[in-house]
Write a structure and sequence with these properties.
- By secondary structure, this protein is α/β, with parallel strands linked by helices.
- The chain has a single domain, classed as Endonuclease Chain A (Endonuclease, Chain A).
- Helices cover 40% and strands 26% of the residues.
- It contains 5 helices and 7 strands; from the N terminus they run αβαβαββββαβα.
- The chain has a 7-stranded mixed β-sheet, with helices on both faces.
- α2 packs parallel to α3.
- It is globular.
- The relative contact order is 0.22.
- About 6% of the residues have low confidence.
């Protein structure tokens, strides 16, 4: 019984389940996203209307250059990314989703722009809940 309690405690300690309200949590939310990009080992899948934050764009390029499969689905010409796999979708893409190593999903109302992190009222949610992540991975299959 004691071992089960310790195991459950450890699972909860390492679980990713964070909710950020922007702009007040903007710096912390951005740092969390930057950390996820830096720690990604195999893949980063993003479906987002607008990514213009320069630091995030650089980190995504660095991840791609170190061998991470970085794929971005977008529908706006202004997605300022280089050295990543980009796919322009045919329909309006209003989602703001990123999946890291197929295990952690970040989603909410915020595009990754300087204004959204610093000025706008937005919400960002980060989770590694297997059921939720699985549903988002299935959604991404529909974008290809």
């Amino acid at each position: 019984m004691k071992q089960i309690l310790i195991l459950l405690l450890c699972i909860n300690i390492y679980a990713q389940d964070k909710l950020f309200f922007l702009p007040q949590d903007g710096k912390v939310a951005k740092k969390c996203i930057e950390k996820l990009i830096k720690k990604s080992q195999t893949s980063i899948d993003i479906a987002m209307y607008n990514i213009e934050d320069k630091k995030i764009a650089k980190l995504l390029s660095k991840a791609y250059n170190r061998g991470v499969d970085v794929t971005v689905f977008y529908d706006k010409k202004g997605v300022k990314l280089s050295h990543v796999n980009k796919t322009k979708v045919k329909q309006k893409l209003h989602t703001k989703i990123a999946i890291f190593d197929k295990k952690i999903v970040v989603f909410g109302s915020a595009n990754w722009t300087k204004e959204n992190f610093k000025e706008n009222y937005e919400v960002i949610y980060v989770t590694d809940d297997e059921k939720v992540v699985s549903q988002f991975n299935e959604f991404f299959k529909t974008l290809y």
